[in-house]
Every structure is written in structure tokens, then in C-alpha cells.
Amino acid sequence: MTDAELRNMVSKTLTCRIDKRDNCSEKMDQFLKRCFYHSGQYDSEENFAQLDKKLKKHEGGRVSNRLFYLSIPPNIFVEAVKCASSSASSGNGWTRVIVEKPFGRDSESSAVLTKSLKQYLTEDQIFRIDHYLGKELVENLSVLRFANLIFEPLWTRQYIRNVQIIFSEDFGTEGRGGYFDNYGIIRDIMQNHLLQILALFAMETPVSLDAEDIRNEKVKVLRSMRPLRLEDVVIGQYKSHSKGGVTYPSYTDDKTVPKDSLTPTFAAAALFIDNARWDGVPFLMKAGKALHNKGAEIRVQFRHVPGNLYNRNFGTDLDRATNELVIRVQPDEAIFLKINNKVPGLGMRLDRSNLNLHYAARYSKEIPDAYERLLLDAIEGERRLFIRSDELDAAWALFTPVLKELEEKKIIPESYPYGSRGPVGAHYLAARYNVRWGDLDIEQ
Length: 444
Hints:
With 444 residues, the protein is an alpha/beta fold. The chain has two domains: 38-130, 3-Layer(aba) Sandwich (Rossmann fold); 135-369 and 389-440, Dihydrodipicolinate Reductase, domain 2 (2-Layer Sandwich), CATH 3.30.360. The chain has helices at 3-11, 24-33, 45-59, 77-87, 107-120, 136-146, 177-202, 211-223, 359-362, 370-380, 389-408, 425-432; strands at 66-70, 95-100, 126-129, 160-168, 233-239, 241-243, 246-248, 266-271, 283-288, 295-302, 324-330, 334-342, 350-358, 414-417. The protein has a nine-stranded mixed sheet with strand order 13-12-11-10-4-9-8-5-14, sandwiched between helices. Strand 1 (66-70), helix 4 and strand 2 form a beta-alpha-beta unit. Helix 3 (45-59) packs across helix 4 and helix 4 runs parallel beside helix 5. The longest helix has 26 residues, at 177-202. The protein is globular and about 80 Å long. The N and C termini lie far apart (48 Å). The mean pLDDT is 89. Keywords: Carbohydrate metabolism, Glucose metabolism, NADP, Oxidoreductase. Pathway: Carbohydrate degradation; pentose phosphate pathway; D-ribulose 5-phosphate from D-glucose 6-phosphate (oxidative stage): step 1/3.
């Protein structure tokens, strides 16, 4: 590819959607002039040395920093890092590397990867990116909790009955089956994105907002988690389904997936944190592809009001009468709190209403994309949204034994139709802990 071809490709998606000042096209031109294409082999020190020469020419002797973004297959991470480190490090500024997930497939491969990277880089040069941590509402989670007195004292087992972290996609693997089949939904979504949200949600108050202080608290939560048992995990795989004259394919219809694949496209798990704050509170998470809707949310269901005066007015379904805080991460970002309220009129009739903070209505500003925030953080050396190696070890330690057991015992995933609400087993799992999935309510 020539420089001009690359610039043409970049210009098709480049916008000034955050910075809407008048000289946008001028800024875009300036930016595009600084985009260059350089071709080479990932494992060739000679090719990286040529890249170094080219970079030096553009840097013109100024103090220059270099950020390498490894959006490449994981089996060549280490080769690329070795060559970049030895032949294309910055001479007078910093050199950092952003590593895209997956960070290994289990505890062992993750440890090998970390050890290999650390032969060539120090921990503070490695930025392990989890784009979910850059989402506006995940960022807002600690503000919501630590800056609001109405939430902070309630964030404990005394008041919270259960916490649900839910991720769903309304499409299947569509062509990415080859990559996905090697990893499955637990590695792809749960072990990283959802567990990271859980750690941020459940951590103790950090000493400060400094990256290391926040990451220390997240590690403590992960290390306090009870080992995950096979009976607390439900897996599923979507099957073909016809709806409105359209037939949706099954997972194994994907040409890049083996016909007898047992890889889960859906998983639900019940997790527990054995510490003083969360003892006995079920944290339920589920993630799936080819479900009835697309979204990601955190649902906090509070306990019943003790000795509630209005019990008889709620009728039989007391569970629906408890308060619930919902943080909708995507799409259509929002935070709402379900409260009980009297319906206006002469009778005493109660209903549930939402106190609603809908981002699009409240803030006219465009919400930055998660990657925009994380790339800017990496350039500025702000590390709190990136994952430290001991954090990664603790996350893998939780899921590796169950993943091994699923694979060794060849556990067959429960089938669920494309576009449905997922396998029935997920409801049984929730019911065992006296939980009802909040995303199944019609009122949402």
C-alpha cells in the first residue's frame, strides 16, 4: 500500500465529531499528512530497523515517543515486541506497547505471554487494553458510587441482594467463527470485560485515584473470589431458527467452525466474593451471541424493605417491588433507579417508576468511543484503565479450572434458538440463588 492509499483509506472514516470547530478539514489534512505506511515482517529485526530509520527521519531529532499498537494475532505478539524493542525503540523518549486481547487462553499461556513480553519490556511499558473499561458508564461507575452519599453506604451485603452483569449481542459469529471457536464466549467476554466491571463495581475505596491504588483494590477483589465450580456455570450454543420467513443460521453453519464444535456462544455464571462487604451476595453474569437484543448493563437489586407497610398493596409479586439500580453501558447509555410510587388517585395503588438519567437527553455532547479514550490514556501514560499483570493472573486463576473441566469432560452446551433469550439453564441457575434476571422484565 502506498502512503496515499493509506490516507485515502483513513479519510473515509476520519471525522471531527468530538471537536466540531470550523477548521475541521484543515486539521484532518494536517493529520493525514502525518500518516505513513511501512511494510515488513513481524519477526524481522531488519524490517524494524528500516522502520526506525523512517521514523527518525520524521522525528527530525526532536524528543520523540513511540507507541506500538499490537492489533495482530496473539501468536506473533512476542516476535513483534522483541523486534520493536531491540530495533525500533525511541532513543530519547518513551516506548510503550498496547496489547489487544486475548491475553492467552488460560493461566499457563497467559503467564508465558507475560514472561516473554517482560524479557523485552518493563511492566510500565505494557498497556493491556480492554475496551470495555473505556466505556463512559463503566468510567462513571466509581463516580456514581464514591461521589454520592445515597449510594456509597448502601454498597454492601446489608442492602444489596444480588448484582447482575449482562452482555448480549443480537448477531452470531458471522465469519469470525474461526477466531471465536478457539476461544469461546467465556474467554472472549467474561474473563476480561465482565470480570473487570465486577472488580470495579465491588472494590473497596482506593487510597486515591492514582492508577496503582485503583488497580491494587481490583486485584484484592479478584483474589477474594470463591473458586468457580462447574455447577455454577451454564453454557449454551445457538441453533438455527426461522422467524418471519427468515432462517437464521446455527453456530455450526458458519463455514469456519467445525461441525461438531462444543464451543459455547452463551455462558452464565454465579460468582461470590468472600470478604466482609460482599459475603453471600450472588454476582451473576451472563454473556451471549445471537440473543433477542444487543446491550450491556449492570443491575443492582436491593433487598426488601424490612416490615414493609405496603406489602399487601404489592400483591403477590414482592420481588418486583424491590428497588433496582440499572446502569446501561450500551447502547443508549442511561442510569435509572426503580422506585415504588403511589399512582395518583383516591385509591392506594402502587406502581414502579424510574428515576431516569438518559444520557442522550441530558448531555448534548457526543460520547467518545472507548478506544479513543484508551488511546489518549496510553499516550498520556494514564494507566488506571489498563490491566496489570497480577490482575490478569487473578482473573485467569478464577476461570482456568472451569474452562479446563468443560473441555476435558466435553460438556455439551445447551442449544438455544437464534434470537431467543438464551438457554433455559440460565434461569435455573439464577433461581437456585433466588435471583430473577432483571433484563427479562417487559418494562426494562
